[in-house]
């Protein structure tokens, strides 16, 4: 499928849309967390793109950051040091986890990207947090307008919200293609589609998704049936791990990932005042593990498992990701005891070292499931 | 050398820490409310409400000093908690799963749990796990990150307001749950005592600036207990008054905690709880720790007439809630004020907050003070990866380089 081929090329800070955007001398802003309200950025004609890592060993970052640090955060930092993000006019961090907030200091000291901003995302969802977050996002909007000399009007916010919501609806349609058996889109493909959305102007991405949804109807290389799995974790910024699962007979039909369903599942209310609606959406979206409490996320994971009729769950904890590692045993217990689902918990390193061992364990898990089914 | 140890600190554990656990166990039997509390939570609120605080962090450190922390960590790991998580958290959670022969009869069970996001994610996550295990509520203060490292006075109003509103909410929920009232006059009294505790604790640090220093890290990591865990009490004030009197005497007489002080060190982060002899070993190398960052982050002036606001300002500007620059400023100030000629930066395997930026700290401390630092890859509580020989060799080599760069005798002469 042509659209899928194109989508794969978009998961890069130097893709054709970003280059074109830069050619028109419009600003590009990198962000590190799915709690970053992209609508506000985008409404100012600034392109928000997600800062991603890569599979290569983070040699440059290793000079500044020791082993026991989130390998994803480190890989992103390494990419920045390498100049992968030299096209950025600035970057935004969010108060997500300890790894991110501390590595923000290193970005400020060691990278040469001109502008930096930190959004104090709350970790709870009560009324106080809502008020504080609303204020925080207003400050962010002011910073964007002042730093990039742009206007972020209510009207622009409204139309941006509509475009973003459209993208979210289309991504849901892509996800729906995996409800049947066999799924019409592979898990690895779905992940690439979501990732590409973070790296592309949403209008363009919407067009691409429409083409893709049409092409799917006549897809010849329909994925094979496999054991239906849900993958849960924090970040997955490339599809290698999912390909590995697929190569041993797994069919990843659903996820609970920051870079997967949690990125687009919730819409922004188009009827409300835009800044309020954006605040609500990001505060109450399917939570990440750094939010209190985890119950809401577990509920989403279990709901996804039902909705996509999964037969087993793989929980991936990225090495040194504390918030997810604390959750993993609790989530596993809930899925096993409440839903009777088999669960395999795995730790993985972002650079995918130790893949052979991962493969063996996943293969054994899938074989066990195949025997049961 | 043993007669140089401070009399005030003799039997510290038996006299103060052990009874606090006995008291908490007893209180629970008597139906009093026991709360698990994490550092950077304004514990004065609990003291003022007569809720008995229990500190899981303290319990983990005491398990480490008794050399039982590793089996407990392993017990948590068997339940699926990653080996890379905070060893304090693993140790305490492990003690809940595997409760045989635990120090002090195990950590007292909580009726409630209180924590803040001020210091790290781990407090929130760890307490959330415990809250599920005990089926008891967790009251959380969601503290914004002080990304500008603003001082208590410089903080933006909306940060302070956010903290204050949450604290008010939390207190009213606590009152409802505990059926106890937070009485204003009692809170004011607790804050006044907390201030007194802070003043005295800072006075202790002042004495340590003397050459030779009358007190080292071994003593400080015990004595900080009152500042950290029980700041708003008469007991804390009484203890520090006694300690100050002894230190004053020592300084007057010019008696140092070690006989021949050659290296004056600043110690960042936590000690190796499982090997507190490490500080004695330092002494054999004529090295003494004159200041710890850990001893300089808990004191803070509170205003009894504005209790919530001053608690907010104190905790929002705690080093743990600020950027790496704040930590660098503190270490650089300690190097200068305490006339230190070396800095030890022990990492803590499961602690992102203190690990990230170690090399930046080292680099900037060198720039700012011309003093080099030594990074030690260790963990405070889990000794499984501790290579004693390697660490000590590294340390000895490091001290030798200090020797060649600094002549402490000269520093001392010029300073006196």
SSE layout and pairing:
The complex is a heterodimer of chains A (373) and B (416).
Chain A: H1 2-9, H2 16-23, E1 28-31, H3 38-43, E2 47-50, H4 59-62, H5 71-82, E3 90-94, H6 98-110, E4 115-119, H7 127-148, H8 154-176, H9 187-198, H10 202-217, E5 227-233, H11 240-247, E6 250-256, H12 261-264, H13 274-284, H14 295-307, E7 312-318, H15 322-339, E8 343-348, H16 355-372
Parallel strand pairs in A: 1-2, 1-3, 3-4, 5-6, 5-7, 7-8
Helix pairs in contact in A: 1-9, 1-10, 5-6, 7-13, 8-9, 8-10
Chain B: H1 12-29, E1 34-37, H2 44-48, E2 52-54, H3 56-65, H4 69-78, H5 87-97, E3 112-116, H6 121-134, E4 138-141, H7 157-178, H8 184-208, H9 217-229, H10 234-253, E5 263-267, H11 277-284, E6 287-292, H12 307-316, H13 324-337, E7 342-346, H14 352-355, H15 358-369, E8 373-376, H16 388-405, H17 408-415
Parallel strand pairs in B: 1-2, 1-3, 3-4, 5-6, 5-7, 7-8
Helix pairs in contact in B: 3-5, 4-5, 7-12, 8-10, 13-15
Describe this structure in words.
The complex is a heterodimer of chains A (373) and B (416). With 373 residues, chain A is an alpha/beta fold. Chain A has a domain at 15-154: 3-Layer(aba) Sandwich (Rossmann fold). Chain A is 53% helix and 12% strand. Chain A is built from 16 helices and eight strands. Chain A has helices at residues 2-9, 16-23, 38-43, 59-62, 71-82, 98-110, 127-148, 154-176, 187-198, 202-217, 240-247, 261-264, 274-284, 295-307, 322-339, 355-372; strands at 28-31, 47-50, 90-94, 115-119, 227-233, 250-256, 312-318, 343-348. Chain A has a four-stranded parallel β-sheet with strand order 2-1-3-4, sandwiched between helices. A four-stranded parallel β-sheet of chain A has the order 6-5-7-8, sandwiched between helices. In chain A, α1 (2-9) crosses α9, α7 (127-148) crosses α13 and α8 packs parallel to α10 (202-217). The two termini of chain A are 32 Å apart. Chain B has 416 residues and is α/β, with parallel strands linked by helices. Chain B has a four-stranded parallel β-sheet with strand order 2-1-3-4, with helices on both faces. A four-stranded parallel β-sheet of chain B has the order 6-5-7-8, with helices on both faces. The longest helix of chain B is centred in the middle third of the chain and has 25 residues, at 184-208. Residues 411-416 of chain B have low confidence and may be disordered. Chains A and B meet through α6, α7 and α15 of A and α6, α7, α14 and α15 of B.
């Amino acid at each position: 499928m042509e659209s899928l081929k194109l989508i794969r090329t978009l998961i890069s800070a130097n893709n054709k849309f970003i280059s074109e955007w830069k050619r028109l001398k419009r600003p590009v802003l990198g962000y590190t967390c799915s709690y970053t309200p992209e609508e506000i950025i985008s409404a100012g004609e600034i392109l928000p793109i997600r800062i991603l890592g890569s599979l290569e060993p983070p040699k440059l970052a290793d000079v500044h950051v020791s082993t026991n640090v989130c390998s994803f955060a480190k890989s992103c930092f390494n990419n920045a040091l390498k100049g992968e993000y030299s096209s950025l006019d600035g970057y935004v961090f969010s108060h997500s986890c300890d790894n991110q907030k501390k590595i923000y200091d290193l970005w400020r000291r060691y990278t040469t990207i001109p502008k930096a901003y930190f959004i104090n995302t709350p970790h709870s969802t009560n009324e106080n947090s809502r008020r504080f977050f609303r204020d925080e996002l207003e400050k962010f909007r002011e910073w964007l307008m002042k730093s990039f000399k742009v206007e972020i009007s209510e009207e622009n916010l409204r139309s941006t919200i509509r475009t973003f919501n459209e993208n979210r609806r289309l991504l849901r349609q892509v996800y729906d293609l995996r409800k049947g058996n066999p799924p019409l889109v592979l898990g690895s493909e779905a992940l690439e589609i979501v990732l590409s959305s973070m790296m592309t102007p949403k209008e363009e991405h919407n067009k691409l998704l429409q083409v893709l949804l049409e092409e799917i109807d006549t897809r010849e290389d329909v994925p094979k049936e496999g054991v239906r799995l849900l993958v849960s974790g924090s970040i997955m910024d490339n599809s290698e791990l999912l390909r590995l699962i697929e190569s041993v007979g797994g069919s990843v039909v659903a996820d609970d990932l920051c870079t997967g369903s949690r990125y687009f599942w919730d819409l922004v209310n188009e009827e409300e005042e835009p800044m309020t609606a954006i605040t609500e959406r990001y505060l109450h979206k399917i939570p990440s593990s750094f939010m209190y409490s985890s119950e809401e996320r577990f509920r989403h994971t279990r709901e996804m498992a039902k909705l996509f009729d999964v037969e087993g769950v793989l929980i991936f904890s990225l090495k040194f990701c504390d918030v997810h590692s604390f959750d993993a045993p609790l989530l596993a217990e809930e899925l096993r005891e409440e839903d009777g689902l088999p669960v395999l918990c795995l730790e993985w390193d972002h650079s995918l070292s130790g893949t052979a061992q991962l493969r063996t364990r996943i293969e054994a898990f899938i074989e066990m499931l195949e025997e049961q089914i | 050398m043993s007669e140089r140890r401070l009399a005030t600190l003799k039997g510290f554990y038996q006299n103060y820490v052990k009874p606090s656990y006995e008291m908490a166990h007893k209180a629970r039997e008597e139906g009093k409310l026991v709360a698990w509390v994490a550092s950077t939570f304004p514990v004065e609120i609990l003291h003022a409400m007569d809720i008995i605080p229990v500190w899981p962090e303290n319990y983990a450190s005491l398990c480490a000093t008794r050399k039982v922390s590793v089996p407990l960590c392993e017990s948590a790991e068997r339940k699926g908690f990653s080996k890379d998580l905070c060893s304090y958290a693993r140790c305490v959670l492990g003690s809940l799963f595997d409760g045989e022969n635990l120090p002090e009869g195990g950590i007292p069970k909580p009726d409630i749990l209180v924590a803040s996001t001020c210091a790290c994610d781990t407090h929130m996550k760890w307490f959330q796990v415990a809250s599920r295990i005990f089926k008891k509520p967790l009251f959380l203060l969601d503290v914004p990150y002080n990304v500008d490292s603003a001082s208590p006075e410089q903080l933006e109003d909306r940060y302070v307001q956010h903290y204050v509103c949450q604290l008010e909410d939390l207190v009213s929920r606590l009152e409802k749950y505990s059926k106890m009232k937070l009485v204003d006059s009692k809170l004011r009294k607790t804050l006044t005592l907390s201030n007194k505790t802070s003043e005295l604790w800072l006075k202790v640090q002042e004495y340590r600036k003397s050459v030779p220093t009358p007190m080292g890290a071994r003593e400080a990591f015990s004595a900080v207990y009152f500042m950290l865990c029980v700041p708003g009490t008469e007991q804390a004030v009484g203890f520090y008054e006694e300690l100050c009197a002894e230190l004053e005497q020592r300084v007057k007489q010019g008696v140092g905690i070690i006989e021949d002080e050659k290296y004056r060190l600043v110690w960042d982060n936590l000690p190796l709880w499982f090997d507190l002899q490490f500080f004695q070993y330092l002494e054999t190398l004529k090295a003494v720790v004159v200041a710890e960052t850990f001893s300089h982050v808990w004191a803070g002036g509170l205003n009894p007439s504005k209790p919530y606001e001053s608690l907010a300002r104190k905790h929002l500007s705690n080093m743990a809630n600020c950027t790496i620059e704040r930590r660098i400023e503190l270490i650089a100030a300690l190097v200068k004020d305490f006339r230190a000629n070396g800095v030890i930066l022990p990492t803590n395997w499961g602690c992102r907050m203190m690990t990230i930026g170690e090399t930046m700290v080292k680099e900037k401390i060198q720039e700012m003070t011309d003093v080099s630092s030594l990074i030690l890859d260790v963990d405070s509580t889990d000794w499984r990866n501790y290579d004693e020989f390697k660490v000590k060799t590294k340390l000895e080599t490091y001290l030798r380089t200090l020797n060649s760069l600094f002549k402490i005798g000269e520093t001392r002469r010029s300073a006196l």
